[in-house]
Amino acid sequence: MSVVPSLLVLLFIHTADLCRTLKPVKNHVLIGHVIKTMQESSFEICTYHCELDDKCFSVNIYTKTRKCEINYGTLPLEALGIEDDNKIFDGQLTSSSAHVGYEAWRGRLHGQGSWKPVKNYLSPSYNVSFPYSTVNITYIATQGAPTEDCWMTSFKLQYRIQDGSLKDYLQTIAGNTDRNTVIYHPLKPALTGVKLLSIRPSSSHGCIALRLELYK
Q1: Rg (alpha carbons) of the chain, rounded to whole number
Q2: What residues contact 68, with CB distance under 8 A and at least 6 apart?
Q3: The Apple domain covers which part of the protein (predicted)?
Q4: How many Å apart are CA 38 and CA 186, to the nearest integer?
């Protein structure tokens, strides 16, 4: 039996009776919201400590190392729709280069494929355009390739507002640590009025690969 490497557990509060319920989400991790870390912790102890803390809304549980992270923040988030090709169309997803069979439109979160740039291509980028309106982006979620050990370990962002030039998002963002775990990256500050977002890999494991979703 395979072991789930990580687990994001969401806590929902029912205001009528102040009762909390748990919703485990396999292979997901929320970063940038950790307020407390515990080592050698079980599922029961980790979720119990979250229930005791009014600021806790979710926990990250790493099953191999038994590390528990207590998170503040709000989930679930409202996706812009890269995962759904009826919302973000293939033509809105482009890249500087791509291997055959790894085109940009394949880089959708939870998809069976991924985007992979041509090896040794200088400054590869993965781009999402919004031609019909502007969007606000508060979170980015990333995965690696689903069938091989390739993923980004860090990346940078550029973005365009209306018809202006590309602007740099100042922070380098930590990427993934395996193929399939979804890493949620909060953007602080959030990006507003975006017409184009460009993902620019800084480092990778094996090779560069990406599956992506954006959140309002």
Answers
A1: 18
A2: 37, 38, 39, 41, 45, 46, 49, 59, 60, 61, 62
A3: 24-73
A4: 22
* pLDDT per position as a tens digit, 19-56: 556 777 778 887 777 777 888 788 888 888 888 877 78
pTM for the whole thing? 0.75
Q: Which helix (H) or strand (E) holds 215?
A: strand 211-215
Other Cβ atoms less than 10 A from the Cβ of 131: the count is: 9
91 burial (CB, 10 Å; 0-12 / 13-18 / 19+) is exposed
Please report where in the chains the tokens 């550029």 appear, as a residue.
Answer: 158
Residue 202 to residue 129: CA distance in whole angstroms? 21
Distance CA 24, CA 26 (A): 6
